[in-house]
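FAQ
Q: What does a multi-component entry look like?
A: The components come first, one per line:
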Amino acid sequence: MTRLWTFLSRLWALLRSRQMDRDLDDEIASHLAEAEEEYIQQGFSPEDAHCAALRSFGGVTQTKEIYREVRSFMWLDDLRRDLRYALRTLWRSPGFTMVAVFTLALGIGANATIFSVVNAVLLEPLPYADPARLVALKETRPLAGGTTGQRVRVPVSASSFFDWRKQAPSLEQVAAVVTLDLTYTGGTEPEQIGAAAVSANFFPMLGVAPMLGRNFQPEEERPNAGGVVLLGHGFWQRRFTGDPSAIGQALTLDGRPFTIIGVMPPSFGGAGSAGLTRNAARELWIPLTLVEAGASRAANFFDVFARLKPRATLTTAQAEIDVIMQRLEKEFPETNAGRGGKVLSLTEAIFGDVQSTLWLLLGAVVLVLLIACLNVANLLFARATVRSAETAMRAALGASRRRLIQQFFTESLVLTFAGCAAGLMLAWASLQTFISILPSNVPRMDSVAIDGRVLAFTLLISLLTGMTFGLAPAWQGAQTDLNATLKAASRSSSGGVGRTRTRNALVVTQVALSLVLLVGAGLLLKSFVALRGVDPGFDPRNVISLRVNPSREKYGTPQTQSAYYERLLTEVKGIPGVESAAVVYPVPFASFISNQSFRVPGRPIDPGEMLSAQFNIVSPDYFGALRIRITQGRAFTERDRIGSPPVAVVNETLAQRMWPGESPLGKRLGLGRDESEVVGVFADIKQRQLDSEPRLQICVPVLQQPTRVMFLAARGSSDATMLLPAIRQRIAALDAELPLSDIALLEERVAGSIGKQRFAMLLLAIFAGTALALAVVGLYGVMSYLVAQRTREFGIRMALGAKLRDTLKLIVGHGMKLVLAGLVLGVAASLALTKVLGGMLFNVRATDPVTFVAVCTLLAAVGATACYLPARRAAKVDPLVALRAE
Amino acid sequence: MMPDKSDVLYGTLDLMVIKTLEALGPLHGYRIARRIEQISGNQLALNQGTLYPALLKLEQMGWISSRWGKSESGRRVRIYALTRAGRNQLHQEEAQWLRAANIVGRFLKISENVS
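Then the predicted structure of the entire assembly, as tokens:
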């Protein structure tokens, strides 16, 4: 109670300190007057009485000082004074202040930017109920043609889904999803809408409810149930202008009628839930019709999600899935041999590959900040040395050590907060640019923003920064040998051995840290160049590709499909500027690939071996249009059509694996129910990733095994985008109701596949460049300072006959010693740290000697320049001037 | 020769101030100082100035209150008075002091006996 009272009255005093000062003055004055009067009464002369009164009172100033201390929060008063002082001194040295604030702004701004991405993408909880209990389930199988033990995660077969749903006690609400595109024909032109067919319990499992209307009913999962559809918020806004009466209306999708039963909330289905389904944004949901009886074991289509029961863990669920899969393997060896299952947390399923990149970048950016800190610390050390005379004077006048430290530290804090503010502005200004270079498959990147959490993080790191770079210089700055400093005050004081040593250590650390970043960036750059240089096996230049989606009604049979594509190709080839054209499903580097299991009659099957190949349905001129080499036999011709003997073309890897030492031509290949004859071999191509190992690949002719949806690929003589209007027009002329989608240059598709690597490389390069610049500035600063300190010495040396060269050698030698020490330390640190890059590198080892040597050379060269410039300035000084200088 | 005046024992000035105010009622600063000096028989080296921070502290704790008034000679002075909380505090501290002094006194006697 008493304490609270004291606190409140001090608070009150804070507000009316001036009034209280006046009151105290009055009180003391009347006290002295009373005393004087009494002394006079005792017979003192007026002067004596005055003196006696003062004597018995004690020091008036001290009293006021103590009084003030009692009156309010002393530290606050001090802080106010220190702040004013710090602002004034910083204002008076604008060069120093600007360099320091800019350096800090760079470091803090970069951190704020990267953290805002990490925050939005990784830290923000998923927008589902209790997301920690949500899991994604995958099937796994051995990688065909891969090294032993490698397994790939694949979608789940219908029967596995049913088995897991029934037999895994750890899981509740197991739901399956399959993405599909539906043609919507209610608008002005046919539109391809991203949709998903989901189990009725999918939304309840996630804990997401429709904003309007109702969810699917279990009976709507049955085949032949009337079609119902849930709308995404965006679609509802676009097509129904947000009208609630849309519910109950009919919607024609793929030529079939659907009844609208509800609308999902805006947070769902857009990029907010990206990653939940394989292709990002979904706008329509329909019930998934699945019948357990006769469900396929071989076809893997489904994304499966589930909620863990309250007491279950990933481990228990994984163990149960393992048991189920082992049993299935024994029961159904022909389909399930080698297959397994994998339970992932939903977070890992969605963010798995983005996570490592972002954490890496955050690590890099923290290093940049550290370098910035060291730089500012260095500047502060230099400043403290210059100001040591002032500090000594203050100490002589009675400033306590604590007060001195406090005062220096306040200056650092002012710098920090200026840096923090400038850094936030920098982050805010650069955020949009930054988002634009993010690889497009980063989930949730549209919600990246500088929010409260980012602000808090920035403030926190700023405070830490301030302490890192502010404390040591404050400590050292306050440590003055009064006598020595005051005596030497007329000369420029040398900071003393200890201080120089600290500054040298700072420079060495800076060089070492920048080396780590430069090595990281160098490795990624080299890896990226190697990746870019990979020959995909086809020529992606000047090829425009787009997806053609004929409707099921008009093009339901193989005959109509093959007829349509034959006509389409004739039309497109007739466009002026088109060199060649082909249709293929799927086009290489589309967002998905197609896999097909196959048999080789007569070839013994290893236990657990699953033969599966990347599978493309192609038109005869596919190989010519994409410039894929045919190495043996022939490509397809117009004669390979429905009714003629089934044929296939395989890649070299498949030919060598299946028929080593034999000619593959004329061999049989079992595909589905049919057996095809191998008529040709083509050179391996990359279908999805440039850094993948060679895969088994099979192509079959579209005229023989047609499918409804195909990609058109047209090669132009120059810029293929120019062909697009003509292509659109020809397609519309054939069928005005036929929607196109997924239009992109083949080159863009290939480049997009390495977007993540490009992003990581680019950013790390930017950070490393910043680090290098900061380190050089630090080195330059130290050298300039050192040279300035020793100008007199150099003057004497030269007066005694030292040559210009000798002086240069002396100075540069000192600087290069620091650089070399930094390089040695940095190489050691890099060898330890670049291991984290291991998984991101392609054809480059994390200890790549070329990169290390190149980076060291670069740093040494830049370091030598930073030493040479101040050295030359010193060496050019006229000895006479130097001697008189002080 | 006069014996050295003793310094005011830390923390005792507060007690002296409130005891003075209890005995004499509301007083201004100079009167309080003089009174303490008189009671101690001029044995205390009291810097009168140190009284003011002490008065402020007591006021912050709520044991005394102050208002502006007139001194006997008509000067504008700040007059301090004991509050109820201050009176309670005084009783407590008085008892504590007596007890403490008593114990110290006994120790001194024992030491005398031993020597």
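Q: Is there any commentary attached?
A: Sometimes. For this entry: Chain A touches chain B at residues 2, 5-6, 9-10, 23-24, 26-28, 30-31, 33-35, 37-38, 56-60, 62-63, 66-67, 69-71 (CB under 8 Å).
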